[in-house]
Specification:
Its cofactor is heme. GO terms for molecular function: heme binding; iron ion binding; monooxygenase activity; oxidoreductase activity, acting on paired donors, with incorporation or reduction of molecular oxygen. This protein has 5 helices and 2 strands. By secondary structure, it is mainly α. Strand 1 (3-4) and strand 2 (8-9) form a beta hairpin.
Length: 111
Protein backbone atom coordinates (compact mmCIF):
# COMPACT_ATOMS: atom_id res chain seq x y z
CA UNK A 1 0.00 0.00 0.00
CA UNK A 2 1.27 3.47 -0.89
CA UNK A 3 1.26 6.15 1.80
CA UNK A 4 1.14 9.86 1.06
CA UNK A 5 0.21 13.02 2.95
CA UNK A 6 1.45 12.54 6.47
CA UNK A 7 1.62 8.77 6.22
CA UNK A 8 -1.97 8.23 5.15
CA UNK A 9 -2.75 5.85 2.30
CA UNK A 10 -3.06 7.33 -1.18
CA UNK A 11 -6.78 7.41 -1.83
CA UNK A 12 -8.38 6.72 -5.19
CA UNK A 13 -10.16 10.10 -5.07
CA UNK A 14 -6.90 11.92 -4.30
CA UNK A 15 -5.29 10.24 -7.29
CA UNK A 16 -8.15 11.30 -9.57
CA UNK A 17 -8.70 14.89 -8.43
CA UNK A 18 -5.03 15.45 -7.63
CA UNK A 19 -3.76 14.35 -11.06
CA UNK A 20 -2.03 11.28 -9.70
CA UNK A 21 -1.18 12.85 -6.35
CA UNK A 22 1.16 15.46 -7.82
CA UNK A 23 -0.41 18.51 -6.16
CA UNK A 24 0.86 19.94 -2.90
CA UNK A 25 -1.90 18.42 -0.78
CA UNK A 26 -1.45 14.81 -1.85
CA UNK A 27 2.12 14.51 -3.13
CA UNK A 28 4.37 12.26 -1.07
CA UNK A 29 6.93 14.05 1.05
CA UNK A 30 10.23 14.35 -0.77
CA UNK A 31 12.17 16.58 -3.15
CA UNK A 32 9.19 17.15 -5.48
CA UNK A 33 6.90 18.09 -2.57
CA UNK A 34 9.49 20.52 -1.19
CA UNK A 35 9.86 22.22 -4.60
CA UNK A 36 6.09 22.57 -5.08
CA UNK A 37 5.70 23.89 -1.54
CA UNK A 38 8.46 26.46 -2.12
CA UNK A 39 6.79 27.61 -5.35
CA UNK A 40 3.38 27.94 -3.70
CA UNK A 41 4.74 29.90 -0.76
CA UNK A 42 6.96 32.22 -2.80
CA UNK A 43 4.82 32.77 -5.90
CA UNK A 44 1.19 32.22 -4.89
CA UNK A 45 1.05 33.01 -1.18
CA UNK A 46 3.84 35.54 -0.91
CA UNK A 47 3.18 38.98 0.59
CA UNK A 48 3.20 40.77 -2.78
CA UNK A 49 0.64 38.40 -4.32
CA UNK A 50 -1.60 38.46 -1.26
CA UNK A 51 -1.47 42.28 -1.12
CA UNK A 52 -2.22 42.48 -4.84
CA UNK A 53 -5.71 41.05 -4.22
CA UNK A 54 -6.55 43.02 -1.06
CA UNK A 55 -9.05 45.13 -3.03
CA UNK A 56 -10.92 41.98 -4.07
CA UNK A 57 -11.26 40.84 -0.47
CA UNK A 58 -12.35 44.32 0.62
CA UNK A 59 -15.00 44.56 -2.12
CA UNK A 60 -16.38 41.08 -1.51
CA UNK A 61 -16.61 41.62 2.26
CA UNK A 62 -18.52 44.83 1.52
CA UNK A 63 -20.90 42.91 -0.75
CA UNK A 64 -21.38 40.30 1.97
CA UNK A 65 -22.13 42.94 4.61
CA UNK A 66 -24.60 44.68 2.29
CA UNK A 67 -26.39 41.40 1.60
CA UNK A 68 -26.69 40.72 5.33
CA UNK A 69 -27.89 44.29 5.99
CA UNK A 70 -30.68 43.93 3.41
CA UNK A 71 -32.01 40.94 5.35
CA UNK A 72 -32.33 43.00 8.53
CA UNK A 73 -35.21 41.01 10.03
CA UNK A 74 -34.67 37.73 8.24
CA UNK A 75 -32.58 34.80 9.29
CA UNK A 76 -29.10 34.79 7.76
CA UNK A 77 -27.29 31.52 7.22
CA UNK A 78 -23.73 32.61 8.02
CA UNK A 79 -22.28 29.32 6.78
CA UNK A 80 -23.80 29.91 3.36
CA UNK A 81 -22.79 33.58 3.28
CA UNK A 82 -19.22 32.68 4.24
CA UNK A 83 -18.98 30.01 1.53
CA UNK A 84 -20.26 32.49 -1.06
CA UNK A 85 -17.69 35.06 0.14
CA UNK A 86 -14.81 32.58 -0.08
CA UNK A 87 -15.99 31.33 -3.48
CA UNK A 88 -16.29 34.86 -4.90
CA UNK A 89 -12.87 35.91 -3.60
CA UNK A 90 -11.25 32.75 -4.96
CA UNK A 91 -12.92 33.00 -8.37
CA UNK A 92 -12.13 36.69 -8.75
CA UNK A 93 -8.48 36.15 -7.82
CA UNK A 94 -8.02 33.03 -9.92
CA UNK A 95 -10.28 33.75 -12.92
CA UNK A 96 -11.00 37.47 -12.78
CA UNK A 97 -14.78 37.03 -12.40
CA UNK A 98 -17.32 35.86 -9.88
CA UNK A 99 -18.88 32.44 -10.18
CA UNK A 100 -22.53 32.77 -11.19
CA UNK A 101 -23.65 29.51 -9.56
CA UNK A 102 -24.66 27.90 -12.85
CA UNK A 103 -21.46 26.21 -13.93
CA UNK A 104 -19.88 29.13 -15.77
CA UNK A 105 -17.30 31.59 -14.52
CA UNK A 106 -18.14 35.22 -15.14
CA UNK A 107 -21.43 34.70 -16.98
CA UNK A 108 -24.20 37.00 -15.82
CA UNK A 109 -22.28 38.85 -13.11
CA UNK A 110 -19.57 41.41 -13.14
CA UNK A 111 -17.36 42.67 -10.37
Amino acid sequence: MTYFFSGRPALYVAKKIGYGCVNLSFAPYGEYWREVRKFVILELLGPKRVQMFQFVRDEEVGVMIDSIAHKCYGIVNLSEVTVILANNVLCRCAFGNKYDGEGEIGMGRSH
